[in-house]
Amino acid sequence: MIHIQRISGGYGKEPIVKDISFHVNAGEIFSIVGPNGSGKSTLLKFIYGALEPMTGEVNIDQRSLSSYSQKELARKIAVLPQHTETAFSFTVREVVELGRYPHQKGWFSTNTKNDEDMVQHAMKDTGVEAFAHLPMDMLSGGEKQRVLLARALAQEADILLLDEPTNHLDISFQISLLDTLKKWTLDKKLTVVAVLHDLNMAAMYSDRVLLLKDGTEQAIDKPAYVMEKEKLEDVYHTQLYRREHPSVPSPLISLVPSENDHSFTSDAIDQLSIHENKDHTLISSPDYWKTLSSAVIGAGFGWHRLFINRHVDKSYYAEHPEEEFSHYLQTQQLDVADTAGMMTAARLEDGAAARLTDAEGDVFVYATAGVANAVDASRAYKKSSSPVSVGTINIWIFIHGTLTEAAYAQLMMTATEAKVKALFDKNIKDPDTETTATGTSTDSVLIAASQQGSKYDYGGTISVLGKKTAKAVYDAVCQTLDNYICRK
Amino acid sequence: MFLKKSKKFLIFTAGFLFLLGTIIVGVSLGSVSIPMGASAQILWNAIWGIPTHIDETYQTIVLQIRLPRAMLAALVGAALAMAGAAFQGLLRNPLADPYTLGVSSGAALGAVLVLFLGWTLPVIGDFTLPVVSIITGFLTLFVLLGFVRFIERKLTTETIILAGIIISSFLGSVISLLIALTGEELRQIISWLMGSVAMRGWDYVWLMLPFFIVGALLLMASRKELNALVFGEDTAKTLGVNTERKRVMILAGASLLTGSAVAVSGTIGFVGLVVPHLMRLLFGPDHQSLVPLSAIFGAGFLVITDVTARTLIAPTELPIGVITAIVGAPVFGLLLFHERRRRIKVT
After folding, report:
1. Is B237's Cβ below 8 Å from some Cβ in A?
2. Which residues of A fall within a CB distance of 8 Å from B342?
3. In chain B, what are the domain boundaries?
4. A single GO molecular function, which one (chain B) (predicted)?
């Protein structure tokens, strides 16, 4: 559809766009991203002929751009400008009707029936029909943008070019605009080339992305390949993180403030303080820890500084345990957003802690255990399942250091293996099967790392961090099991 | 891109009736008052070549003195209003008109050179006057746009008008100086500079008509493009407008209209500002209707203004430009006020 070959040029003598080549296929959404001044808009101007390149060629449907007359080109390419201000306020219908201009012939042409139909259709598709008779300056930014989109649609062009279309629009309009475009690429085989400054929008909606820096191509590929942490950090000169989008298969870019006030003054574990009462054990910290857990409150990845292990009766039941727990935290005047919380029917006084510290790392583990409902995982298929929220063996692991996500996942395994071994060595049996238990039906784990100091890439059983964690977990679980058994 | 067809028909009919009415009033009022019915009949019969049984003097007054004057006023009014509408659309500037841009002054300089220095170019003979006016008007426009682009790329509303006023006052002084050097009476100079359609006769109507027709056709053929150009040159291009060619067409059309109007009537200010603005208020900014409606109502407006100019303090006759300025300058101020307010609201 669009072929750009080795294009260079700009406004003055110095080229802004340098030696760019790419092609856009029919029905594709192609985004151009890059920092301000990287030549995104300039490149777009070459495609619709607003600017002549110094060298290189633009071909639309195998024909050189310069061989098109202005009207022919307007039937091929429509442009959605960033914003429009006019000295005179046309009505919405009048603006949309301008889109029919390239289809009209002669100096004194009038609108045909077909023109009228297309205008009506375009207004309907963009949802501006309701204010067709209103003057433009009475509309909001998002509505104006939709009118201009209707005008572009009335042009019946195969290609739509957009220059930062989401500028000045609030989030819901940005999404609805891009949703509409996506739909049109599927329904009408529209081809879209968009200059976008929001990397996440580009990642979510584009088939392919061109990343520009100082007018040169840095990458051109599917968003998943272009949006790599190192590449983007180099182009944007800022620290950022890439995650995967929680609900759609596309990368998600998060920025990091350069003035990050998240910092422990010394070893984070030394700053933990523990308060116990008959209802709960509270471990609190002056600053936030990055946690991965199966806790009732704050499950999954999160940032927390209050860690509460709450004792509840065996008969505890709540329809919405999370809500009930939140309510409990409020009565204790604890900030729910800052808290990771687990529940246990085990006695808090049986709890045990272990800390392993040396030059290679610092790990602290706190655990509580009761084994009344111990389970052998390999035989568990025989049991009837019931949803329960009250934990029995709860393990809290605190690590001073910076962990990768892989390290978190590996530590989960390491901790579990250490726990299983502790149960094995203490000869805990599944009461139903009379075989050695691997845990209880309601165990919970939390791994918290200060994300300060030494960096740990791995957390497997024989990694530097894994060894310490495994030992601390094993020691703490054995100790709490001993306490539990002794008391019985 | 139009008003509802029936509504549009109604508006144009009203416009033509208004114009016709002003012409009948124009030929009836004056030092010798003629009943409107009589002058209407004289006009009707003259059009169809039917002999009229009304006082010969009346017939002479109507057909030889007042009708050419009214027709000239109508042509000049239509020309200036159309040119104003075109300038405003092309420059995206509600304050632009032949007078505020200095184009009228440029054309006037050309007219003065021909009239007071007695120039006649070979071949075109009598048409020297409008041709020179049109050329000097066109040149002034180029100097103006070049000057403004030199100051800033964006062609801001105020900068254009400021540059227009600078050019206008400079050229006005040059004209005064030229006329003074030829030894003419000062009163006549002022009268000419303020514009007048008095004592011109049919000759001037024929002198202007061909240029008027060509200019009007050029603008009528550019109405849709004017609509697109209101959104800026880049956008107009993406909508398929050949902006380079259309810009020349529009500037040429507006210069033809302004130059030929100034050549026969001097500098009549603000018509091109007031009339299109009023049309926009009443019927919307769509140039497809705006350009022809400006022509019709501009014509009627100037005929009525001329009647006012010669009857207000009769027997003394005021320059027609005095009346248009009295109406136009406050409107200009009001437009400036709205323009600033609009801009403040946007930013």
Report:
1. yes
2. 137
3. 83-346
4. transmembrane transporter activity
One-letter amino acid at A169 equals L
Q: Do you find a cis peptide bond into B315, omega within 30 degrees of 0? A: yes
How near does any CA of chain B get to the CA of A83, in Å?
10
HSE-up of A180 (CA within 13 Å, CB side)?
21
CATH class of B83-346: mainly alpha
Question: Minimal Cα distance from B276: which residue of A?
Answer: A88
CA atoms of A430 and A438, how far apart (whole Å): 8
Sign of CA dihedral B12, B13, B15, B20: positive
**Residue B132 burial (CB < 10 Å; 0-12/13-18/19+)?**
buried
Cβ distance of A87 and B339 shorter than 8 Å = yes
Residue of B nearest to A74 (CA): B240
Domains of chain A (ranges; CATH) run 2-255 (3.40.50.300), 268-487 (3.60.70)
Nearest CB among A84, A88, A137 relative to B94 is that of A88
Q: Which chain A residues are closer than 8 Å to B284 by Cβ? A: 90-91, 94
The enclosing H or E element of A182 equals helix A171-187
Nearest to B240 among A84, A88, A101 (CB): A101
Tokens 């050949």 identify what position? B242
The contacts of residue B201 (CB under 8 Å, 6+ apart) are B64, B68
If you measure CA to CA, which chain A residue comes closest to B345? A137
pLDDT in single tens digits along all 347 residues of chain B: 445 678 888 999 999 999 999 999 999 988 888 888 888 988 888 888 888 788 888 888 888 889 999 999 999 999 999 999 999 999 888 888 898 899 999 998 988 888 777 777 777 777 888 898 899 999 999 998 888 888 876 667 678 888 888 999 899 888 888 877 777 666 666 666 778 777 778 888 998 999 999 999 999 999 999 999 998 888 899 999 998 899 899 999 999 999 999 988 888 988 998 899 989 888 889 999 999 999 999 999 999 999 998 888 878 888 888 888 888 888 888 887 877 776 665 54
